[in-house]
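Notebook entry, cofactor series.
This is the third protein in the set we're modelling with a bound small molecule. For this one the ligand is zinc ion. I'm keeping the input format identical across the series so the outputs can be compared line by line later. Sequence and SMILES below, as received.
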Amino acid sequence: MKRTLLAASVALLAGSAMADDHQQPNIIYVIGDGMGFEFISAYRYAMSDLETKTMAETQFDHYLTGAAMTYPEDDTWVTDSAASATALATGEKSYNGAIGMDNDKTSLKTVMEYAKDSGYMTGSVSTSQINHATPASFFAHHPSRYEYNQIADLMGQQILDGDAAYDVILGGGQQYFIRDDKNWAELIEQQGVSVITDMQQLEQIQQAPVMGLFAPKGLPHAIDEGKDSLARMTSTALRLLGNGDKPFALMIEGSQIDWCGHANDIACAVHEMDSLNKTLEVVNEYIENNPNTLFVMTADHSTGGLTLGRDGEYAWYSDRVMDIEHSIAYMREKMLVMDADLWPRYVADLVNFELTAEHIERLAAASALEGEVREDALHQALAYITGDITGTGWTSSGHTAVDVPVYATGPHSEQFRGFMDNTQLGKRLIDIVR
Ligand SMILES: [Zn+2]
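Returned structure with ligand:
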């Protein structure tokens, strides 16, 4: 009797020790596309009160652990999203444009593929199309990020072959997966994958595998009509991936911080940061209830050369940023189909600021042009006006080479401290899941 009890308790002890040793942590890997430190500062100040100096506590102020370099293996210090996502996903540097491939165009195994081999459930959530550079670099291998149809074909074919490295993949991209020459939605549904195209279906989905394609390409900007889309998709992904006995690895991309940066559109960028902040609230709640979860967040690069303050003036008008009601892209689209005489009033109403003579002159100059040149000039004028009103500077319509923040909490988070190269994030995550 005694012996049996003892044997049973020894077995129990051994069992629990085994479980601890072998229970690999869930991974939540967040990438703010284009989210340099400048964007973190902009968001914090935009949420805070200048008069009382009451600083808003944002989700970006928890868990900051270090900074990372982002340069690619190319003839430049400035990376694109494909090379950087490849580094973050595989631990290897590559050239600008590479999707999960090295400089010799050899496929590199990604953290999601390693995780799958170890028995993980895996997934991705993004506000870009799901075959865009960042998510694609975790699940596909292609020499060029711009071959969207081919990358969609690779991702669809994986389902047919039964070796997809994703169980839940949510974002945009209908036009690449539902085409006249190839309807992947139909083909993969025959394999038992639910394909949903309406955000309303998110809450109804009960189990993986699922592919969500909620827009032809990227989802609408947060400032326009995409406010809660990333947080909603994340809630669903965590519910589907986190309810089994298997660990999971989920990549979440705030894709459009970068797009607003390319557009030199400060209000758009701050609202994308807010959308990511709301998503991090969802993630934090999950982590609190599931402590065996490693959270790592970084950016792939910064975008636009954003400065808070410009032209020698010691001011950044966060309240004016928050008064802007729509993205530049939204305003431009509406303005191109209206009488140009109405432009100044329309812009003043949506930015909630009286335009100066110079602003009005810039709009008039754009209106005198034709075709694409007119569209570009109008965009430039709107970027100038919103920058001038708010004290925001931009130096580029592309990326910049500055270091980006690194955040981590949970098991193994000590490995993400200090100064590092972006490949180290990929390498360390691979070591943890393999
Ligand atoms: Zn970009």
